Amino acid sequence: MLRRFKERFKGRVGKAKNAASRAGNPAQAEEYQQPKENRKILVVGQGDSFKETEMDYALSLAERLGYDLIALNVGPGPASAATFLSPYRKYQRDEFSRRAQTAASLFKEKVSAKGLNFTHLVKFGDLGPTIEQLNHEIKRVELVITGSEASAAKVTEEVNLPLFILKGLAEEKNLIGGREMRQTRPWGKTIAWGIGAAVLYAATFLNTGVVMKYFTKGGWYAALPIMTVFAFSFVHGAFAHYLWSALGIEAPRKVVQPRPEAKRPVRRQRPRPELRLKA
Amino acid sequence: MDAGLPEAVQFIDLNTTAVLFLFVVGFIGGLVSGFIGSGGAFVLTPGMMSLGVAGTVAVASNMCHKFPKALVGAYKRYKYGQVDIKLGLVMASSAGVGVLVGIKIQEWILANWGQAGSNLYVSVSFVVILIVVGGYVFLDAWKTTKSGGQEMVPALALKLQKIHLPPMMYFKTANVRISMWFTLPIGFATGLLAATIAVGGFIGVPGMIYVLGASGLVASATELVIAFVMGLGGTVKWAMMGMVDIRLTLIILAGSLLGVQLGAIGTTYVKEHMIKVVMGTIMLIVAVSRGLAIPQYLKQLGLINLDDGIIAILGVASFVTMCIALAIGAIIIIGAMWRAKSKAASEEVYDQV
């Protein structure tokens, strides 16, 4: 694998190797290879999973921009060398990786259907440094998308990349699965307001003689038709509203996709060049 | 039943055909006014007159159904973020003066030339305004459609916005900063027309678009606020004269409250210039319809001499043309909604694959 990688990307091998060695884990170097150096969107999952909206939003964005997608799951990092070496810890990490792979396979299917490139990575450690490290290793990561505000806070502090946080995922999930939501159509309210409107109409038209006599008297009697139309518009208007809603004719949600909130990356402290003398 | 009614006007007897007609016209009128901000009345007033309702009663009953309908429509479109309440209220305040002047003119014509004179005045107003303004709106909509549906701020509006004539006003939703003095004549003309033919929007909406520089979507939604304020004021005036036929009003309202909400929903589906397309098309066809009705009133006033057969044919032609205007308006709106909805549905399916 590594040989093929060398053959295909002769010019970049040096860089990749350096990056991998900076990461302190040369074995992972091959994970970072991309079929071509396209621009990329990094999607950071919640633990070992990806939310539906997170995947859909990243996918539609990548499709529009023609970018590749990198899905990243970051597991809890080792607290100390002892726990890192413990069999239980290893089991936990394997379990995390397995669950993350399962979650990513769905994502991969979606991305493959659109003909885009997709890479899945599993990392362990703190979120911020992990992403920043990836940013150095993988070329042309343009932006980071996450659905978790908690992880977003960590990322903004340490990562020098535009970060998109998808807010209100729970509500948006209902929106995207709009069909399920529309199953609860307000037929009950429609019927209730409809009966109310029918009663008002019956009351007026069964007493047309009296109504017309007083309503056209003019002067202060002008209040009668005005009050009447207000009452009718309230009751019948509510009926009309619920009727269209029940029939499924509603204004399309203009924000079907969750609105990403672009956050400015925190300025990274770059170490100043220091002059060192080898005396 | 007719005891106590003013002698000058007659209230018609209702039959099933008339009720069905008013309901359907009310629905389609509501659909149109929910979509373009006004209208409905331009179909309803002649529609009622075709049923034999006197011009003033038709205008009064129509106005009485207009303000609750506008209220419901404005509320719905406000929720979609299309209504500029401040612009609506500023326009409505000058429109109020226009309504009062318009009613005075109507009363004066009714007193001097009777019912036929009143009908003639209403019809001539229809024809002149609809052809001039409707023609312009239609041309603009045609150009916009040809240039790919991109709406531009009209040159006149841009010039007027640059004139600094205090007090300057800023309208947030419309995103327009303009001197108050330029809003006054448009508001006044809107009110004057509303009191005459009950459709102020045919001046108000193009005025807000071409003179003030608001977008078609905001102008048509804001017109509903103006329509509510003016409609309420006008209704008080007409009702105090005992001209409102509440039966007609309620039947129209039954249809129009359904229609206005559908029309308001429709604006969220279609491209903005569709509002102008619908408005221009309907105005021009209705102008033809009312033009065909004019000889009848001229004959009643003894100004021309025409064969009764020809008058009858013209009457039928006028009525049929108006029905065509109605049908075309409704078809354009529902067709545009249908296309947009099925397109959205197919995209949704595509996204889920």
Description:
The complex is a heterodimer of chains A (279) and B (353). Chain A has 279 residues and is an alpha/beta fold. Chain A contains twelve helices and six strands. A six-stranded mixed β-sheet of chain A has the order 3-2-1-4-5-6, with helices on both faces. In chain A, helix 10 (187-205) packs antiparallel against helix 12. The longest helix of chain A has 27 residues, at 87-113. Chain B has helices at residues 16-36, 41-50, 55-79, 85-146, 155-162, 180-197, 201-212, 216-240, 246-267, 273-300, 308-352; strands spanning 168-171, 176-179. In chain B, strands 1-2 form a two-stranded antiparallel sheet. In chain B, a hairpin with a 4-residue loop joins strand 1 and strand 2. The radius of gyration of chain B is 20 Å and the shape is globular. Classes of the chains: A alpha/beta (279), B mainly alpha (353).
Quick summary of this structure?
The complex is a heterodimer of chains A (279) and B (353). Chain A has 12 helices and 6 strands.
Shape of chain B: globular
Number of helices of chain B: 11
Strand order, largest beta sheet of chain A: 3-2-1-4-5-6
Any idea what the shape of chain A is? elongated
Order of helical and strand elements of chain A:
HHEHEHHEHEHEHHHHHE
Distance between the termini of chain A: 45 Å
How many H/I helical runs of chain A?
12
